């Protein structure tokens, strides 16, 4: 009958022993707990048996009677204990012997002597080996611990009398910490080992060196040289080396001799490790003997060529060391080996253990296989990586390569930290001590794993299961295609033809403005990349589609004065709905179009937001915008409020940008019968002020398309006469259909630049057609010099196709034509589109005329405003409020004190977006003043620290600025990016509605890195979790992604979770058992104060308050309660 060996353990050590047995022709038997039903180790054995049914996860592997009974029942000949659990329990070794089963390890008596650290200490003294000052007997009370420190002083360390792996070990530096650390250490030791504590003096900055030994029944003892285990965290080893680096030869011999002294003194048999500490003076002290196999035994095997596990088995069978060919002279060192312990811990958060499901891997050892569940019940070790080479630097290089090849997704690991260790100069060339990690804080400056492919597939799976992540206002769906592009003939940013930006960079803003005035012919600004799609497609055009056409624009439309592509609503919408960074868009387009100036909208003191910000926010924003590639800033204020305009203009000037001060136009200067405060005199005086402040270009911003041709002639002509040297730029919307005529009239009157859009993105609420403007100016003094074919064909065709991709947002779904009544209601182009959408989505499409009428009334209530974002939004909010509540203007005036007006109205009345000429009429009048001037400046450093605390160290200056203007939107965007990755790299149809089954497509992350993705199937609903499994193929490999079905989740009940982004909502960092709840509802707590103690992965974690406050609710109780997720508020 063949021999059978059981491993009374789990995980990678069980598999290691099984492999050794298989090589020796021995059958293997595994035991497993209920929680390890799907674990790899039970599948690697010839037979496997469930133990500990109904017991706690750890207790199952500590249940000696059942393990022995199972072994006897299946006819096991020997049991290997592995490490941890029962490996150093003498009662288990004795139970094996009593049952007639060989224990693969030392005899029960030796296990008992060596496992008791107090007894082992006495043995070392008797053998003549130096020891650290410590207690001779176990410490059973806090009084005894206090007596010891009074005699020997601090620092000290508590250790479990039986144990290892750092559990039950607590470092104490002063009397105030003694009591709590004693209690925690006792609790951990009792939970893991069921035994008591001892205490010893703590050595500062020692090296931790251990010597591997083997002994046989005949009394032969050999050593297999030493290992350096100094790189530790929480007294648990992370990286080990063999042999120890930079260890003097004489000291190496002394350590080996002392290890053999202790082993011979007790008659040691089988494998063991004698551990020492070396102080900075080179003195060594015995600390303990581990009477078992060590986790790091692998590197000793590498340098000696001795299989320690097979040696253990053969020694247990009765072989002697000489029979195994293991004389001391035969054991030699060959090269250097390094072992790294890859754990499911997050080094960025104090090595917090992580749990979850491994989604992908490039290894298949122990726990690390795709689909493996990493539970909180056991040690966090995932896999061990061993490198072996001729010398230490070579072994380190090999280890670095191996770690970089790892792809483990679904759980966090310490691999980024290990990579920093392996490359550290002290590690490679110096002497490492147990304080190596503390002394090298740069180790925590890690390059986090990007996992871009995994996160993108999670996003796609989420959309496939739960629908679009961006709300789609209509039922139209985008087709699965990409607009065709013309051949570019190797065109790149490096060979782009000269454009107006070259002149700007060479001469600066003043010279740039002078060149514009000297230019013959009409200059054009193309709004296709911003205002055009804001007006026609709800600002939803993505960077992906802008980047594709950008090289053509750079090379063939280089005569454009500028491209409007940033600011205004694009900033908010990019993050809120498109889940992409507006700053990244700006940088990407700048790289592709280096030769044409970029232009943006700056809402004066409102920046790119909808309220007033502290002055330093606006100034810093302009500085960053210029740094990221912006050139021309069209600075406007929705009410032409000069103090707000001046702040924006000064901020642009200080940042080095081109100032384009804008007059926001409303009314009709060509109608002498119209009684209005917005007459010609008003605009001319405002123009004078903007010139006085220092504008480089003067803009007439006609956001509603109210500038009739005759009005354009009058206004532009008068300004030109008063300011002959200032370039004039005119912007309008084509809502009425008169846009082209008005721009031609402006040009005749002296305008230098007008705005237009590529033909297929022009008209209606967008800008006039560039093609029409170019054609109309041909062979006139205003000839644009632009090749009409380049405007009409390629970009026009591209955008005509691209509009189909944005079918859900297409304005023509509800709006079929322009509207000349705009001269009456004065609704701006982009807002007109949005209001039209909203009316139809609420079933009020046939009553849109009512909203237009109420818009007129609301505008009069506010004293006749210039309707430009954000004032136009306020008027629109008020109009809808009046329609919904069936209110007339008289009703509002009569009931102003009792009505719950929209918040935007209230904010405007406070002056948060400025003041109209003459202020607001009663009863809506407010005090006049510029709020931003009196607002305290934003502390950018503090804001960055807050963002870093929540979102990690990758926060940039641009992220901080986004958060200063849009705190909630930015937080949501950063969380979305962390969860789903660079979704801006997806093509538009798949971003919006997800891919189809069996639809293979490509995603280019960066040049040279392309993903091939193919969705395969969506699984059935899992009723116990509310999840669906989505199957995909990534680069030819099958991946599975679990996604919560949000519709199904509505019918399910789950334990409450912490709310992301809410600082006072505190979640447990990982699942575990609640040992102690330290607060109750109503308690006042301060930041950092302990809330509860959780036991997880054999460690006790203290969950602390994240801020000062009062406890509102507690969603957990003391054990047997288990916390499975975030839970606290």
TrEMBL record:
EC numbers, comma separated: 6.4.1.1
SUPFAM superfamilies: Aldolase (SSF51569), Glutathione synthetase ATP-binding domain-like (SSF56059), post-HMGL domain-like (SSF89000), PreATP-grasp domain (SSF52440), Rudiment single hybrid motif (SSF51246), Single hybrid motif (SSF51230)
Record keyword DNA damage present: no
Residue list for modification N6-biotinyllysine: 1098
Binding site for substrate: 603, 869
GO biological process, one term: gluconeogenesis
Highest taxon of source: Eukaryota
Active-site residues annotated for this sequence: 292
Protein name: Pyruvate carboxylase
Annotated metabolic or biological route of this protein: Carbohydrate biosynthesis; gluconeogenesis
PANTHER family, alphabetized: PYRUVATE CARBOXYLASE (PTHR43778), PYRUVATE CARBOXYLASE, MITOCHONDRIAL (PTHR43778:SF2)
